[in-house]
């Protein structure tokens, strides 16, 4: 369990990082919590590792207009405790409570876990549900990718060779919005057997928007608009079940995962509504 | 007065060092050593056709590549079968490196030595092995069916078969008013110590001596095995167990292939060589345990008394049997727990499979046996509509029946005879603590909120302090420092504390002055090892006996110095003094000076012992029947094992939609005789319960049909986190053992033993249907519910 030989580059600027990433078979090192085990098990063997931890312009969390920007090297722990996140996009913090353990959250980055495009990732689902914008810089300049276009398959994104994710912007949710994240995992902090993020809007007591993102049940998070069915549990479940395709593995059967989704969708929507009500009052 | 430390929750002496990063584990040693890495079989069963190293030879930093063909002398012979047994008709062991055939995924085929581990692993990647892949045998069903053979020379994959009978159980069952039969399964799990195995060896060419460090539970065993394999005089080999990050059984096996190969390479290359096992290697090339299938026939009367118990079980021993058949032997004997069926028959068959070999994992066959027995008792209670604890109580061996001979032979080859224990008192204490008699009220209260809860109970008896012996050495230095050594090893149990407590009390010295060394053959060469909950019983008593020798000698020498009868003396706080007249005294450290007549005064205190300072000139300086120095050595070798016991209860809630099991309360009543340090005993129980919860609800080895272990990482092998482990409420009962001077019994494995049994009992109680297979996941429980509903 020792990585293959690789070259380690620690660029002093974003342009330097982009140049380094042009090399064949390069990988970005941010928090390293997913990458390092892959290296040690030799499941990944990049020739160049570009460490972006020294790039201060990628640090921090800021309100930029109607969006909340999270930099590529902001740690989970910082995001989890940052007041701007709690005020403007509480769903991120609701989801992060399920992510791993303190020592991992101290190193791991929220943007890194989105860039990793893990179908079991809580933040992947959050980004997909909120329609986050992923900011990318590459040899041809900067571009933004919408989350729905970003997640292509399990551990697969629409990033092209040599591109670096610099940050992710989430739309700010005013107090008419409520959200929730619930999941079932075998151990606290593990990847979920199934999980659901829910987002609802209540205007003058009337539900005006309701959508969910289900994770760990397909190659990418499954985002579903449920406004039309969310008051009728049977219909809601039928719609949801028709759009997911869970697997059977050593931890759970596909049917059990479907059962979890049924339970978690109802629970997430209920919690999201009461979250909206508490944010309004 | 010296504070008595035996029985007190003394803080662990080893902890300041360990928790501040001062521990030195195997991988902390030998940073300059060459590193080894292994090419391991990717197939469960295959013939090796060719090993091509061409591409690997040019890697800078490569030192050597070794296959079976390169091994020399006894290193090329099969590894030893450590514990032969008459029932083990077809024992088989592997070679240090595979000789033509591989019999499980992970078996070592090639050893690479390089300047560092990175390079060694690079080289491993470049070696090409071609195989003729054979059909593997995976799981007990396949092994029984025997369409394929793990070892062509072993018919039906059967390594061992045994039948034991006490009375005519089959006739008794036939004649019994009521009968039940049950099929019960336990899956594979493993010890999973935080630190894997590891070996580091230095060959001293000038003196032709080998010094090796191993992350082992038996340094004396490794030493003897390596000396034999390398054809070295025992005197020329020393083995040290440094700080060891957990063992739980896997490190009592020896010699592991690497424990032979690394010293062999160090001598061959005349360079220090080190190997630290990584986590994947540990999963696929160390050891597993637990997989057994049991069929039970039981006959009983109206009261639930067991008249006949007939148990037939199959044990999956993996690819090889280097540790013999200890596990099924323990299951077959310890299954009976605190009960006395009127007759008992047990038959077991041990089977080869193309999976990692099986050796004892904390509990060692007892978790399976207790699961089988306790499910049976619960089934009887359900059948007769009796309280589960009542059926247990009616079958208990009573205190006035102790010592109780069960008519069987235990794993140490000696009669299975319980020395002491008070099972009714334990059960009464457990019921009181957990609120057994009020549980139905609690159940109704939860039910009113739409919540489903259940309660489970399970009992066990554990043979501890298995022989043959351990020794202890106690020495008083002239500085007042007390050195204690015993040969068995430590893996975190707290030996440096409990052995110091024993010596502090026996010798009358402050515990701060006592320093304990374990697992170093340079300090104490005769020992067996740390396993079977034996360290406190075996080394504890040996050290106590050695300390008593030192005390006797100190009193005699002090008596001479103070010109009084040794019987009038006592030792308090390191001072020998006359009882009742504290003005007449001499420090123990001064007695140590006097004990060693000197010619040369190397420091101030030594002056007192030089030839012109002391001595009765009418006698030789060291009397004929005496030795110099204030020290003693003694051994403890018991007639038989001593039997601890315990009872666990758990209250769980099962979530209606997701079938997740939440633990509301976990209660333990435990009797390990006299307790040396209650805090350490509780720590052992907590750790054991954690592994019990793990084995019941989380951990399993998921082999697929081709023999690939699908969850060989901590991501998918679900060792629970602290978040999954309940608070343990523990009650102690102390029934001293009459067998040893200190009256103690072992406590190391206790907590884990009833895990699967107690959770199965509770889940069955909550759900209302039978639980016959453990561990159980929420998904499996949910599927089981669905099946039960469909069948209803």
What can you tell me about this protein's structure?
The complex is a heterodimer of chains A (281) and B (792). Chain A is an alpha+beta fold. Chain A folds into three domains: 7-50, Uridine Diphospho-n-acetylenolpyruvylglucosamine Reductase, domain 2 (2-Layer Sandwich); 59-171, Uridine Diphospho-n-acetylenolpyruvylglucosamine Reductase, domain 3 (2-Layer Sandwich), CATH 3.30.465; 177-280, Enolase-like, domain 1 (2-Layer Sandwich), CATH 3.30.390. Helices cover 34% and strands 27% of the residues of chain A. In chain A, strand 8 (151-153) and strand 9 form a beta hairpin. In chain A, helix 10 (233-243) crosses helix 11 (254-280). Chain A is globular. With 792 residues, chain B is of the alpha+beta class. Chain B folds into three domains: 32-134 and 197-276, Aldehyde oxidase/xanthine dehydrogenase, a/b hammerhead (Aldehyde Oxidoreductase, domain 3); 292-397 and 404-466 and 639-791, 2-Layer Sandwich (Aldehyde Oxidoreductase, domain 4); 468-636, Aldehyde Oxidoreductase, domain 4. In chain B, the strands form seven sheets. Chain B has a seven-stranded mixed sheet with strand order 3-5-1-12-9-10-11, with helices on both faces. Chain B has a six-stranded mixed sheet with strand order 7-15-14-13-8-29, sandwiched between helices. In chain B, helix 17 packs across helix 18 (755-767). The longest helix of chain B is centred in the C-terminal third of the chain and has 28 residues, at 535-562. The mean pLDDT of chain B is 95. Chain A binds chain B through residues 1-5, 41-42, 101, 184, 186-191, 193, 250-253, 255-256, 259-260, 262-263, and chain B through 117-118, 121-122, 125, 278-280, 657-658, 660, 698, 702, 710-711, 713, 715-716, 718, 720-721, 723-724, 777-779, 782-783, 786. Chain B: It holds the Pfam family Ald_Xan_dh_C. Chain B: Keywords: Molybdenum, Oxidoreductase. Chain B: One of its GO terms (molecular function) is iron ion binding. Chain B: InterPro entries: Ald_Oxase/Xan_DH_a/b, Ald_Oxase/Xan_DH_a/b_sf, Ald_Oxase/xanthine_DH-like, AldOxase/xan_DH_MoCoBD1, AldOxase/xan_DH_MoCoBD2, AldOxase/xan_DH_Mopterin-bd_sf.
